[in-house]
Design goal:
By secondary structure, the protein is of the alpha/beta class. Helix content is 43%, strand content 10%. The structure holds thiamine diphosphate and magnesium ion.
Length: 374
């Protein structure tokens, strides 16, 4: 199957079809049974999360277009993979994101203003990774998989795994990242140490302009077998399946059963970042085929069919999303510009003579403008 086709692949774990039909449970190729058992309130909550994160993302894209952010990496199309996996995390689990995991960040309870400081260039992100169990965004492709593996090895050595309420780790990365040495090294370390980690690959079909067929000749999840652990492909546009598969993999990790690789099969509906023009390397019909598999439309169809939510509820959620977006915008415009000298503050925890020298040099440079017209 090529990425433009509409139907599911045989090995894809799916619990909610693009038409909003719900499957009770599905058995993966290795015999694992995946199911979810949500209350109506929880189903509505997932819908709300999806709508809100999409709206906040659209607002961030608009802010960039208006010159308020330097750049933005949109999650459009990947909401279900992120909300499904993000909600599957237990409070004690630790997540290591890339630069696109705004939906997971939201699920971790982090104020969505936080990453905007980074993309506006006024701070380094701002949240405390230990408080929210969500590491800083990582731009260096694949690097966070090594950080996550080291962290997972550490918690195993500290005896924090092996029980129902143990801790597990999840590392996010993209299809392109699977070609990085770091990711392959992380797989090896995690495998031989049987580490409590889930490798969550959002296969959005592109690494900037490079399509999937430039990264692999086999489905990505099958790579896991060569490293000695289990791989599974989930419909990344299905929030229920993304939740079920991630929850099962995290629970297996926390019980000491080692790593899993999840390939969330999805599509990047927007540009790679606001600096990119995808019309230069992909055709409109491919985007349209994926539009029919929209992650939010299928949840809405399901809620309507099951009479779990009505038009009033959908309107209320739209309003809530709009209010959150307006609030986000107001706060972005209010962000103070940092004092230029603070750029040296957090390079080393205890400073260094070299940084001191650079700081003095830069202060002299800034002082040279004093009294000038600029
Ligand atoms: C080590 C490294 N090499 C190259 C880049 C430039 N770069 C930024 S994003 C990207 C593509 C990543 O694609 P993928 O892993 O599929 O993630 P996606 O952006 O699609 O979510 C590249 C090559 C980088 N940030 N880091
Ligand atoms: Mg990609």
């Amino acid at each position: 199957m090529t990425k433009g086709d509409a139907g599911p692949e045989p090995e894809l774990v799916q619990l909610l079809t693009p038409d909003g039909e719900r499957l009770d449970s599905v058995t993966g190729p290795d015999g694992t049974e995946y199911r979810v058992d949500f209350t109506d309130e929880e189903y509505r909550g997932l819908y709300r999360d999806l709508v809100v994160v999409r709206k906040l993302d659209a607002e961030a894209t608009a802010l960039q277009r208006q010159g308020e952010l330097g750049i933005w990496a949109s999650l459009l199309g990947q909401e279900a993979a992120q909300v499904g996996s993000g909600r599957a995390l237990r409070p004690q689990d630790m997540a290591f994101p890339t630069y696109r995991e705004h939906g997971v960040l939201y699920c971790r309870g982090i104020d969505p203003i936080m990453p905007l400081g980074l993309f506006r260039g006024v701070d380094q992100g701002g949240w405390d990774p230990n408080e929210f169990k969500f590491n800083m965004y990582t731009i260096v492709i694949g690097a966070q998989t090594l950080h996550a593996t080291g962290y997972a090895m550490g918690i195993a050595m500290d005896g924090k795994t092996g029980t129902d309420d143990g801790e597990a780790v999840i590392a996010y990365f993209g299809d392109g990242a699977t070609s990085q040495g770091d990711v392959n090294e992380a797989f090896i370390w995690a495998s031989v140490f049987n580490s409590p980690i889930v490798f969550f690959c959002q296969n959005n079909q592109y690494a900037i302009s490079e399509p999937l067929e430039r990264q692999t000749r086999i489905p990505l999840y099958q790579r896991a077998a060569g490293f000695g652990f289990h791989g599974v492909r989930v419909d990344g546009n299905d929030v229920l399946a993304s939740y079920a598969v991630t929850r099962a993999a995290l629970d297996s990790a926390r019980l000491g059963q080692g790593p899993t690789m999840i390939e969330a099969y999805t599509y990047r509906m927007g540009a790679h970042t606001t600096s990119d023009d995808p019309t230069r390397y992909r055709i409109a019909s491919e985007v349209e085929a994926w539009q029919a598999k929209d992650p939010i439309a299928r949840v809405k169809a399901f809620l309507e069919k099951q009479q779990i939510a009505d038009a009033g509820y959908f309107a209320e959620i739209d309003d809530q999303a709009k209010r959150e977006a307006v609030h986000l915008r107001e706060r972005v415009l209010d962000m103070p510009d940092p004092d230029p000298m603070t750029i040296f503050d957090n390079v080393f925890p205890n400073g260094s003579p070299e940084i001191d020298q650079q700081r003095e040099q830069y202060a002299r440079y800034l002082a040279s403008f004093e009294g000038s017209a600029h």
